[in-house]
TrEMBL record:
Any GO molecular function: glutathione gamma-glutamylcysteinyltransferase activity
Native organism taxonomy: Bacteria, Pseudomonadati, Pseudomonadota, Gammaproteobacteria, Chromatiales
Keywords, in A-Z order: Cadmium, Membrane, Metal-binding, Transferase, Transmembrane, Transmembrane helix
InterPro entries (UniProt xref): Papain-like_cys_pep_sf, PCS-like, PCS_N, PCS_N_sf
Protein name: glutathione gamma-glutamylcysteinyltransferase
SUPFAM superfamilies: Cysteine proteinases
Signal sequence interval, chain numbering: none
Region (Disordered): 221-243
Peptidase C83 domain mapped to chain residues: 11-240
Bilayer-spanning residue ranges: 21-39
Alphabetical GO biological process terms: phytochelatin biosynthetic process; response to metal ion
Entry-linked Pfam families: Phytochelatin
Organism (species): Thiorhodococcus mannitoliphagus
Length: 243
């Protein structure tokens, strides 16, 4: 996996993670409904806040949903099981699209209960989700940061490459009007309208067409936990019999 964090960045990320743990535990113990209330209050969809050009019902959406890549996802697409598990949910959907289904998000952690509980309380960073993907043995996993719009379009144009999948990490604010880090897989690209098929794993948001420029803006933001730029995870799966 490329783009490893420097020791200084890793120390900063650990400090931020401890703060996330503290916040999560306070919410769990002091708020009625605990973490489920906290997550729901942040991510409840408000379509009237969606940015111009983001669509859940455009004619182009119906067309792109029928493409081969989109169909590999939609045959067994599942929303996230927990408010904090958008990263593992995205990875589970990628694996299912490649014919390697996982029954539960927790199974991705391969018995590491501490890592699972940490995710449940604090969520995950881009590098953490990439490491989780790499641990499945799916194939080559790359973290891509600071992509220009044109570089993003070029990468989107390569989605027909067998076994290639993309998981995007972005701030919802430019797209959905609420500032919150999020993960979702990309299910296709429509060059005619220059829009991306975003397979949002949060219940209620649904499959959307998002302008490339808008998703690029949302990706090129800083994750306050890691102190690093958001971006995407590129997965190039190896042959099934190589597992």
């Amino acid at each position: 996996m490329n783009n490893p964090a420097s020791p200084a960045v890793a120390r900063t990320e650990r400090r931020h993670r401890l703060r996330r743990w503290a916040l999560g535990l306070v919410l769990a113990l002091s708020v009625p409904g605990g973490l489920s209330w906290y997550g729901h209050s942040l991510v409840a969809p408000h379509p009237e806040q969606f940015a111009s050009g983001v669509s859940r019902d455009a004619p182009a959406l119906k067309t792109i949903r029928q493409t081969a890549l989109a169909q590999t996802f939609l045959r067994d697409f599942r929303v996230q099981e927990h408010w904090s598990s958008c990263g593992p949910a995205s990875l589970r959907n990628v694996l299912a699209s490649l014919g390697r289904p996982v029954a539960r998000e927790r199974d991705l952690f391969q018995g590491d209960t501490l890592a699972w509980l940490r995710m449940a309380v604090t969520g995950m960073t881009l590098d953490e989700v990439a490491a989780l993907a790499e641990s499945t043995g799916i194939g080559q996993v790359q973290v891509r940061r600071d992509l220009s719009e044109q570089a993003l379009r070029t990468l989107l144009g390569s989605l027909s490459t067998p076994g290639r999948r993309l998981i995007v990490n972005f701030d919802r604010a430019p797209i959905h009007g609420v500032s919150l880090g999020h993960f979702s897989p990309i299910g296709g690209y429509d060059p005619a309208s220059d829009r991306i098929l975003l397979l949002d794993v949060t219940p209620g948001f649904g499959v959307q067409l998002v302008p490339t420029a808008l998703l690029s803006e949302a990706m090129n933001t800083q994750d306050p936990v890691s102190g690093r730029s958001r971006g995407l995870i590129q997965i190039d799966a190896g042959p099934r019999d190589a597992d």
